[in-house]
Amino acid sequence: MENNINIEIVEQGSPEVPSLIKYISSSEVAGFDTSDFQFPSPSSKGSEATSQGIQHDAPVVINHQRKYSVSMPLSSEEVELPALDGKTDGIPISSSQSATATSNHPQQSKCYSQPMPKGHVLQEAANGDKVNNHPGIKAFKDKRFDSFKTWSGTLERQLSILRGKSPKATAQDGNNTPRNIERPLPVDRYFDALEGPELETLRASEETVLPQDKKWPFLLRFPISCFGVCLGVSSQAILWKALATSPSTHFLHISLKVNLVLWIISIVLVTIIFTTYLLKIILYFEAVRREYYHPIRVNFFFAPWIALLFLALGVPPSVTKNLHHALWYILMIPIFCLEIKIYGQWMSGGQRRLSKVANPSNHLSIVGNFVGALLGASMGLKEGPIFFFAIGLAHYIVLFVTLYQRLPTNETLPKELHPVFFLFVAAPSVASMAWANIQGSFDYGSRIAYFIALFLYFSLAVRINFFRGFTFSLAWWAYTFPMTGAAIATIRYSNKVTNGVTKTMCVVLSLISTLIVVALLVSTILHAFVFKNLFPNDLAIAISDRKRKPQRKWLGLRYRSHESKEIENYLKFVNPDTIDLEASTPQPNATEESPSI
Fold it and tell me: Which stretch is the leader sequence (predicted)?
């Protein structure tokens, strides 16, 4: 390299080169990078410059050239520009030189090589990306879901809520519009923003406070209607216990092991769903609160306690035969508290009065009274079961009349039939068995309730074609226990009136109930593991607090109004006796004469 540079100096030497520049070999400077830069070739005369110029200017040239060989790191955080403290790569710089260098405008440094980090740095970065890219962790860390998280607010905001002060926290929807999420949504917003028999489908003109372009965290997609699975399976445990122990079905030779297996499965399901929803309450309390204010889902808050009552009723004889009375009081206290809240809203005449929010799913809030009365009477209690039976009977009559007449002001009932209508069968079926336990026999009062349930069952079963075309939902599990309740009531009735008809009805209704549960179980497994859409984004809890303004099509209205005005003006001045709109309409070729044939 030095030989080539010396040859160029000899061949290209010129007297015009300034005498202050002296050629310095690259080997004389330690660590000097000459891979992408070449010095100009000075002449031999320039190499004979005075030693004073060499000693004064050479370090400045070296410092200037070192700016072209700075190695840049990967991130800007690691860049630290060294101060001109009098040293450059071990070469001292005088104070006058440093002052001159700092006084001049610095030239933009260039980078010809950027070393890449290797080894454990890359490995740690890759491991960190794997952890941060996990779908569950990314969804939980997403700031757009903070409005629904329980512990996302500041301590001052949480304390102000506990003190009863009006919160100031707001959320933003998809259009970056502030939304107040602390105030409970009025029931009218649910009716305006949602549609469908279960009010789960978002209308096209509505917006949500949570993003719709990605999958939400699992707990936000876990609805309260999942407890319907517990109702369906635990009621089957009661059915097979009745089939195994009833005298009228003794000819079937049903083993109690079926009841034991179903009861254990029910306990596992109740434990899993209870634990999951408890985590949702802890982590996403705002979502639970919105479900509570939902006009239909609020009835599913009775489902967990009804499922526990079903477990107590279906306990196998091999496990225990006598349950403690304290268990009944523990299970009925939550139901009693919910009834005070819900029934009070029905009677208050406010925005959640019964004539406005009445829906077949309201039967879930009625059935709990009769199931509690049935369990209490079977345990030997008297006053408590009669108390809840009276409450359930009074409100069932009001609800039955409200749903049957379909008030013009009631907009919640769907026009088409739906499996939710099978809830009409649940209350009278369980009421007939509860009254039989209270009275000690299946007397006329029990038979009246049973016949009402049987008629409603048949009136819905013959219209099975009207139930086609509906999307599968987990809420359908809650509609299986009414059919199971009708089958159990039929078994109780056949014990009192034993003949071939009642025995046949027992077998048929029990078979239908079991097949429906099996079909729903298969559908649930398919949607969970094959289609993977069992838990979609729950848009029903993410509606905004105000309706989006509809976009008006001014252009179409303008043209229509313009045409109507022209027609009106034409009809004013035309003779009505000789009016001929087709003849009076000018044609494109009206001025041209048609050729004679």
Answer: none
